[in-house]
Write a structure and sequence with these properties.
5-stranded parallel beta sheet, Alpha-Beta Plaits, 13 helices, 5-stranded mixed beta sheet, alpha/beta, 2 domains, Malonyl-Coenzyme A Acyl Carrier Protein, domain 2, globular, 10 strands, single chain
Length: about 300
């Protein structure tokens, strides 16, 4: 059985996400740890647009629910994934899934990461813009003040900047035929605006216990994989202030010869991107299924 898992990032959280999660016994430890940070009424928080996009709420939520969902799915499977990657903050649950850090450590790090990122842009109005249909060079030619935060492919990416510049860019890029969307993220992630956050997180990670991963772990900062704990720590902090090499991460996982891929999270963004880039290797999202057992059955049919 050979399969890969992808952990969703911020922006996928929504009311009604993974409605079966609390009914899964295996999910409870991660949900309890998450509740200690954001409260047990986290589903009510998802109803509030402003609340669900706040870093202090969203990053622990994404991390905790991903870990809870993975625990429920893993309880239905006999074998662990052979390749793993996480998108943006999804790299924290990916590290936990790979055995590098514990669930509790991943959730604690999500809190620290969110606080450092918020502090880095305190007093500024920054965010992220999704752009499809134009290359990075074409986008930056229209508005050089932006930075490519996430590399998704030849003509698709996420751009960081101040909201005023992002709004103007969206208008200008739309005229050129691009599809643009402001994301529910309130910081200029993976860009120069996050330099102080990356440094602070790196200092925090220096004393973090870090084990070698039990699977191939593709890293956001480089797109390549590593099993060296020192390199893993460096990559986990570096990605905060540098472009996420997501297209390369997908290619690294595909090179492992996996038979199928499961996105762990509420959204379908990563599974759709995977199917566009590696159509010969089927991918689904956990959010497509009514429960973890249904997702496990799909994996078992496709991963053998």
């Amino acid at each position: 059985m050979s399969y890969a898992v992808l952990f969703s990032g911020q922006g996928t959280q929504a009311p009604g996400m993974l409605p079966w999660l609390e009914s899964e016994p295996a999910s409870q430890p991660a949900l309890d740890a998450m509740a200690q940070v954001i409260g047990s009424d986290w589903r009510a928080g998802l109803e509030d647009v402003a609340q669900r996009s706040r870093n202090a709420f969203a990053q622990p939520l994404i991390t905790g629910t991903a870990l809870a969902a993975w625990a429920a799915l893993a309880a239905c499977l006999d074998e662990r994934p052979s390749a793993i990657s996480g998108y943006s903050v999804g790299e924290l649950p990916a590290f936990a899934c790979a055995g590098v850090i514990s669930e509790q450590t991943a959730i604690a790090l999500s809190v620290q990461r969110a606080a450092l990122m918020d502090d880095a842009v305190a007093g500024l109005d920054t965010g992220l813009l999704s752009v499809s249909g134009l290359t990075v060079a074409q986008v930056l030619q229209v508005h050089p003040a932006l930075e490519c935060a996430i590399e998704l492919g030849a003509d698709q990416g996420i751009y960081a900047g101040e909201v005023a510049a992002l709004t103007l860019s969206a208008e200008a890029l739309s005229v050129k035929g691009a599809l643009c969307k402001l994301l529910e993220v309130r910081v200029a992630s993976h860009s120069r605006w996050m330099a102080s956050a990356a440094l602070g997180f790196a200092a925090h990670l220096e004393s973090m216990p870090c084990e070698r991963p039990h699977a191939v772990l593709a890293l956001n900062a480089t797109g390549a994989s590593s099993r060296d704990p020192k390199a893993l720590r460096a990559a986990l902090s570096a990605q905060i202030a540098s472009t996420v090499q997501w297209a390369a991460c997908m290619d690294t996982l595909a090179e492992q010869g996996v038979a199928c891929v499961m996105e762990i999270g509420a959204g379908t963004t990563l599974s759709r991107m995977w199917n566009q880039r590696h159509a010969g290797i089927p991918s689904r999202s956990l959010g497509d299924f009514r429960d973890a057992a249904g997702a496990a059955r799909w994996l078992q049919r496709n991963a053998n």
